[in-house]
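Mods, move this if it's the wrong board.
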Amino acid sequence: MKIVRVLNTNAVVSTDRQGKEIIITGAGIGFKKKKGEELDKSLVEKIYCLQSEEDNHRLQQVVREISEKYLETAGKVVVSARNAGLKVRDTLYVTLTDHINSAVERYQNGISLKNMMRHEIRKFYPQEYRIGCQAIEWIEKKTGIDLGEDEAGFIAMHIVSSEFETSEVSDVQKITELINAIIKIVKMHFKIDFDEDSVSYQRFLTHLKFFSARVMDGEVYKDSMEEIYRAMVVQNSRAYTGVEKVAQFIEKQYGYRLSIDEELYLLIHIKRILDEQQE
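Not the wrong board. Structure tokens:
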């Protein structure tokens, strides 16, 4: 296995059997090495193979300009997220390595950022937040620095961002604000308290997460289920009043008109929650 380029003392680029570039890390693996030289396989600790060539090159740039120090932690986050069933993109390797490095530098300079969305992040994205807390433990084990729960929330936001077609954490904040608004509308309209541990509520949250992302993107979901929609509206008129409230709010605030299919899915989730309230 030959070295394609040296990123730093502890990271190099090589190629796999298909000729695709891979990033290899290990203590001293790039020390005094040059392009074309054989790789010392005994020094290999981790291999990173990203599907996207663009993401691969961006990660190489991050490792070259910053460090590979937190790439391992970012890799653990990616693996944990995928094991939890979250469909995170390889972009997370890049954004999270960069973010963790910046967070540690801020801490060392006595700068602490308050995460104003932490409560909502923990509430609406419990899996992502749990993994964020794990990452904080991994970072502390590596550096002796406890970045705290606010930073766990920021890491969770990066995970959520990588699940969508956006790499902007600010978009996650907008999506979260919309989820919060919809939850409040349904809660106040029906005068109910959610059982946040129930399957129906968790399914509702998952739906709202991707629905809110579509609203932010202006992407209308269509699946031509008009007949089912009309039957469901007639059979579930009370639940539909909640759908109308949400639809009116979104059109007024975001200029986004819900399609029949989107109203139908909202109706199904709200109906399930109302049914649970009556049990």
